[in-house]
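As promised in the previous annual report, we have extended the structural survey to additional targets. Below is the entry for Glucose-6-phosphate 1-dehydrogenase.
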Amino acid sequence: MATHFSPCSSSSTNFLPSSCFKNETTVLFSRFAVTVPRKSTWVTQIHSRIQGRNHFHIKSSNGHPLNAVSLHDGLDGSPTAKENDKSEGKEKSAIPISEAEKEESTLSITVVGASGDLAKKKIFPALFALFYEDWLPENFTVFGYARTKLTDEELRNMISGTLTCRIDQRENCEDKMDQFLKRCFYHAGQYDSEGDFSELDSKLKEKEAGKVSNRLFYLSIPPNIFVDVVRSASLRASSLNGWTRVIVEKPFGRDSESSGELTRCLKQYLTEDQIFRIDHYLGKELVENLSVLRFSNLVFEPLWSRDYIRNVQLIFSEDFGTEGRGGYFDNYGIIRDIMQNHLLQILALFAMETPVSLDAEDVRNEKVKVLRSMKPLQLEDVIVGQYKGHSKSGRSYPAYTDDPTVPKDSRTPTFAAAALFINNARWDGVPFLMKAGKALHTRRAEVRVQFRHVPGNLYKRNFGTDLDKATNELVLRVQPDEAIYLKINNKVPGLGMRLDRSDLNLLYSARYPREIPDAYERLLLDAIAGERRLFIRSDELDAAWALFTPMLKELEQKKIVPELYPHGSRGPVGAHYLAAKYNVRWGDLSSDDS
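The corresponding structure token record, generated without further manual editing, is:
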């Protein structure tokens, strides 16, 4: 069953009126850059990153300053943007910020779909965490918007139970919560009602109190109403004197056609620079560290190719089923829900060439090159499964089709394994194996890099016939218990010559006792700063869907029945045959990783 997106309006209205762009190049940048009084902690943190004596640039999660144009949403075709492009390669002067401009900006964050689980469990807690760590500007407000009738106080009561302070809290947690909740307000309305969004606009203006308004909309809603919300907000609730940005949650369609249609509809009201397609896995600490590990450590970069790497495995598993999300999940399945976005994004980051810089466009350009170098998935390189009911230790575990929101004859896969290949000089012939599933024996997300066997290994006889035990393996555990470890061969102390496989282990909780921020915190902060490096560009999305759409259509047209596997098991047997086809053994199935 396909998801039907709202029909596109014939209007070509942009989220930010073109009249607002006149002579605003430096003003918009300045108005975002300083939105707080001089003495606030937020300004102190920004000043600690000073580039020049009297001027500074904002830095985002890539550690590099944003230029004025990148914060100037929708200006790609403007004369100012072209002039800046011509000056590329020359040192750009920092933009001075006046005291008056420091106090005349405000940030308004509207969470659309505020009564939903994602908003309650992730978005509001992430915003509070940013506030607690003094990452939000002084002048900010948070609005919840949904169809549910709530008062401001009821919204505050609803989200207060999900807010937590850092383990290393420096201030009274209750006081900080109270301060944050006083900034939270609610407006009930229909998602396709321009009148309701006009009322929201009035409330936003009341809180903004005449200051320059920068507005961020977070669409925590089903994709079939994205366009309705964007159209209503663009016409009635966009900023007239600052920037307006929209964060869009996955899924971005369910195939190439629906994804392209969604993009086309959104771009009737938004420019590409205003659309922030979020994939929260790109905000996870270990995924962020992937490029650091590779590009800043000489020991790894020379090994990062077909010459030394035998295969790469991207593994995602959950130890629970759909648990109430069956209705949503049955329309997408594990391939669309996990593999086409989370795992493919990690693959692109892993395999990309060295970008020119850490600028968002340079990084995303390299990711797109990887995706375009890959051949579309073939059905013979894919295994699908679905979990069935199972009893263990006197406890019964339900089957996928036992979920009351799932059709009894559903063929939607809850497990999938696939082999992908990149047709370029660096990775030719190296299998990239993906595996994702629900109701498996453990919860984990990791990248495993298995290196080639040592040629002419002197100690071959010590390993017998199991040469895989002699293979070095680099593992990046994304969750849980974030870690990076390298499996090496080592002599066991003693008089004999007995070899053992040992780990050189960087366990984050031991090395870095400070609590790791949630991925949504990093991504929200980047969206506020206008940093797009961790968000998905439209051509990147097109290339990703081009890899999976033909296979998905064939899977559905041929009505392939998924292989059943017991709830709580290691998944269907077919996944092992797929790996063996390419002379690979799944790394997460070894005795020391179970």
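The longest strand covers residues 309-317. The first helix runs from residue 25 to 33. These points will be discussed at the next consortium meeting with the crystallography subgroup.
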